[in-house]
Amino acid sequence: MPLRYLxxxxxxxxxxxxxxxQYVWDSNGNKYLDCHTGHGVAFLGHRNPxxxxxxxxxxxxxxxxxxxxxxDLRDEAIKALERVVPSKYSYAxxxxxxxxxxxxxxxxxxxxxxxxxxVSFINSFHGRTFGAISVTWNPKYREPxxxxxxxxxxxxxxxxxxxxxxxxxxxxAVIVEPVQGEGGVNPATHEFMKALRQITYERGVLLIVDxxxxxxxxxxxxxxxxxxxxxxxxxxxxxxxxGGFPVSxxxxxxxxxxxxxxxxxxxxxxxxxxxxxxxxxxVDVITSDDVAGRTREAxxxxxxxxxxAIGNSKMVxxxxxxxxxxxxELRFDPKNVIExxxxxxxxxxxxGTTVVRLLPPYLINKDDITRLVSVMSRCxxxxxxxxxxxxxx
Length: 393
Prior knowledge:
Layout: E1 16-20, E2 23-26, E3 31-34, H1 37-40, H2 49-59, H3 72-82, E4 91-95, H4 98-113, E5 117-121, H5 130-134, H6 139-142, E6 152-155, H7 160-166, E7 171-176, E8 179-180, E9 186-187, H8 190-202, E10 206-210, H9 224-228, E11 234-237, E12 248-252, H10 254-257, H11 273-288, H12 291-310, E13 316-322, E14 325-330, H13 335-343, E15 346-347, E16 349-351, E17 355-358, H14 366-392
Parallel strand pairs: 3-15, 5-6, 5-7, 7-10, 10-11
Antiparallel strand pairs: 1-2, 2-3, 4-12, 8-9, 11-12, 13-14, 14-17, 16-17
């Protein structure tokens, strides 16, 4: 029996062989505008030259090093992060993935608070490791693997009254996405985020803000937290930061970081030299190329053009998002529309049960947007005709 890859995402039916900027190519030479970007990872563009060069240079020097040893590169990466990280945070801990970062901070919250309960939100998604999946809402991700870590309550998102009732002083931490991604591209309201910060502060509950997908400029600001003016005790980032190289960072306030000590966590590959080089280069791209500003303008244009083209369609329930985190909520499962987009050179992904999610790189231009909107409109028209014919039959 030959060894086979265990594909837990399912196959999209094409083989991608190369990428550059906002585009990828398949094995037949077909070009695609990538609005999937590996669930948002390639936001700084495929093979961003600054990040590629940084990794190449580091490969010639040192590939692996335990964090038990001091390193100029680690100092430089932390110094680079200072350029973009809100002053609220005094510590950075580098890991490899978003889920791993979530698990680490749940451990920190329990140790520091000496409490066990967590609060998350309906339609949240924080990853698939045991800790992360425990605070992820969708039952299909959780049920087959129970028992998970216990005592997690899911409150209504954007519902201030649920915060008042659900966040009690026996809660260790609340974890929240400023924009729910997997759950349907649901932006938080300012009222909700401000109330969440106030209530957690008053009741001695830690607030973990998960910016693994929203960070690094994706929402039109370097951090979605900046948009709301709300900062957690811990903020998580990852995905886009390393330009495609696996990396995540937990950013921690001084009063919490001071209580975390040797042996509380560890990672064989966390803060390896290649990831540190990727962080340095990623921050350079974010700051030198006005990533947040370009994202803000491109996001406005996409929403404007989509609204004009499909906003009044009977097939579309709502358009929503922030920056280049865009969701088109349809009135049906979006599977056929996503397949149509792919056939016509646009890669997209599903969010929630009925949302087409678009996560293009900040490099997307006006011509790309014109094409994206045209194809989306055409695919919705095709699906309308298909559904009409099915009903008629």
